[in-house]
Amino acid sequence: MLPEPTVERLSRYRRVLRDLHEQGQTHVFSHDLAELAHSNPAQVRRDVMLIGHTGSPAKGYRVKDLRKAIAKVIEDPSLNRAIVVGLGNLGRAVVDYFGNHHPRFTVAAAFDVDPEKVGSDNGVVPAYDMEKLEEVIEETGIKIAILTIPAAATQAVADRLYPLGVTGIVNFAPVPLKAPKNVFVEQVDIAATWEKVAYFARRRRTPRKNS
Amino acid sequence: MLPEPTVERLSRYRRVLRDLHEQGQTHVFSHDLAELAHSNPAQVRRDVMLIGHTGSPAKGYRVKDLRKAIAKVIEDPSLNRAIVVGLGNLGRAVVDYFGNHHPRFTVAAAFDVDPEKVGSDNGVVPAYDMEKLEEVIEETGIKIAILTIPAAATQAVADRLYPLGVTGIVNFAPVPLKAPKNVFVEQVDIAATWEKVAYFARRRRTPRKNS
DNA sequence: AAGTGTGAACCCCTTCACAGCA
DNA sequence: TGCTGTGAAGGGGTTCACACTT
Predict the structure, then answer these.
(1) Which residue is nearest to nucleotide D6 (CA to C1')?
(2) Nearest Cα to B10, choosing from B41, B48, B38, B49?
(3) Three-class SS string for A16-77?
(4) Is the C-beta atom of A211 closer than 7 angstroms to strand D?
(5) Residues A181, B206: contact at Cβ < 8 Å?
(6) Which residue among A7, A192, A206 sits closest to B11, beta carbon to beta carbon?
(7) pTM greater than 0.85
(8) Angle at B140 between CA B136 and CA B141, to 5 degrees
(9) What is the pLDDT of residues B2-16, one digit of tens each?
């Protein structure tokens, strides 16, 4: 099991490596990759070590091989589809962003209580009434859910998702979610983020070396 | 300077304390606050200690006083206004969420290159052409910016913001932003978050004890 | 000469555990 | 008795520093 910060960095390295590949670069040194991904050379080498990949002192890392090595560790095609619950502005933003054109992730279905929004999608992603939640998840076997619903409704929806085999949740509501041990929840709380940024902006603190 | 995780938790405690206050609770014990904010008692006591506040063994913490103490540390009215750059779906979601009714934060202005979107707002927040960026920021003295624009345009916009005195940025584009030392940048990368959730959902790892 | 791989040191946050107090 | 305040221990990720390789 990799440390959480390492997974985040690998995700960034990957994006950088894809760009390098498209530019025809075949090799990178740790310090170059570090520069491009806002990390540092020692950290890059440590992260690469953790996924069991190696480079050469003469040429650095082979872009192609490192990409493959990272993909092997952090990619799982069965988790590249998710549902979005809640079709407010934020939900629609997520649906539009991932709906079809994203290279790796797909929103396979969306849900809302409001019948107005259900079925009125722009054709990118099928939208269902909340009642269909169980049915659709069971049919598709989706394991990732993105929750963009009001705080008050979030825990109740989450509780419906757990028994359906959902094991990963991205929660945009400003409420810490109770979840079983085997479910991983990530909070994305824009107000809390703002508050944090305000605090450190005031103190003029240096941003984390990585991130 | 408080540790970053502590600031995040204080933000959560604060929300819980507001609820408790509304329910008429006058005191809380560390273990109750911990329960409600998904932390733990020792952590709560340590965090409270870090902001120089104290409670009593008999009654715990006075809700009113603790709220005040946290506010004193993490709140700064001059940083409660921000601009939003980019009025795509995501930008509009942010504008709508904070536009007027949020208790503490306000989006004071929004910008977009697309003349279609400029001025066509729902009246909640004034929308300007990107050209007005310098003018509006200088007039309002706003120091926080929320960037919801395409990755390719992000760095260029950020580079315009730095000399205007912007010291805090929330960046939704999937690009690590280069910033001067005195500017605090927080990335909110939904694809990266998804990737992380997928990784740990697969491993069935327990979520961070805090978060 | 320059870069990788990695043990070990380091740092920082979290958790323990207990003295002190109501 | 039960909870707070906090020194000290613990744990985990980051950085150092250097042997090894080309």
Answers:
(1) B46
(2) B48
(3) HHHHHHHCCCCEECHHHHHHHHCCCHHHHHHHHHHCCCCCECCCEEEHHHHHHHHHHHHCCH
(4) no
(5) yes
(6) A192
(7) yes
(8) 110
(9) 999 999 999 999 999
